[in-house]
Amino acid sequence: MVKKDRRERKGRDTKEGKFDEIKKDLERQKAALLAESGEIITGGLNPGVENFPDMTDQASAETDQNFTLRLREREQKLLKKIDEALERITDGTFGICESCGGGISLKRLEARPVTTLCIECKTRQEADEKIRES
Ligand SMILES: [Zn+2]
User: Fold this and answer.
1) CA–centroid distance, residue 116 to ligand 1 (Å)
2) Which spans in the chain are helix H?
3) Beta carbons within 8 Å of 30's beta carbon, 6+ residues apart
4) Which long-range contacts (CB under 8 A, 24 or more apart) does 75-81 make?
5) How far is the CA of 121 from the centre of ligand 1 (A)?
6) How far does the centroid of ligand 1 lie from the alpha carbon of residue 91, in Å?
7) Which of 87, 83, 109, 72 is nearest to 31 (CA)?
8) Is the alpha carbon torsion for 119, 120, 124, 130 positive or negative?
9) Which residues make beta-bridge pairs with 96?
10) Which residues contact 119 (CB under 8 A, 6 or more apart)?
11) What is the pTM of this model?
12) Ligand 1 centroid, distance to 75 Cα (angstroms)
């Protein structure tokens, strides 16, 4: 456990202060996602679907379900990433590239807090993916 007795009292300009802001942002995003998926489960996305008569009702209900599943998959992935980022903030590994162990720039973290790679590694990874795809 690292004690925070070296805390600089400069507030939001320190890295720690920024991480606090990012953490709050992530928590807000997570709450919004959870609220949204709750709405989907209770049918909030399509309140008018019950007014459709029999045949079309069936078809559109199935389409809605597929759509909901796809959406939920994407949300769950994002939720997982947010949780992992929050964990990294807690255990002090946030902002460290998991590929090269170097620091990720604050600017990049603010733009994309769920990232686990520094810009150099990310660029290299994307280049690799492009080669694999072609
Ligand atoms: Zn890296």
Assistant:
1) 9
2) 15-41, 54-91, 106-111, 119-133
3) 79, 82, 83, 86
4) 75/33, 75/36, 75/37, 78/33, 78/114, 79/30, 79/33, 79/34, 81/114
5) 4
6) 19
7) 83
8) positive
9) 103
10) 104, 105, 108
11) 0.66
12) 26
CA 122 – ligand 1 centroid, Å: 7
Residue 78 Cα to ligand 1 midpoint, Å, equals 21
Residue 104 C-alpha to ligand 1 middle, in angstroms? 7
Residue 29's identity, in one-letter code, is Q
Residue 79 neighbours by CB distance under 10 Å: 16
pLDDT digits (tens, 9 = 90+) for 15-57: 788 999 999 999 999 999 888 877 655 655 554 445 555 656 6
| Cα 14 to ligand 1 centroid, rounded to whole Å | 22
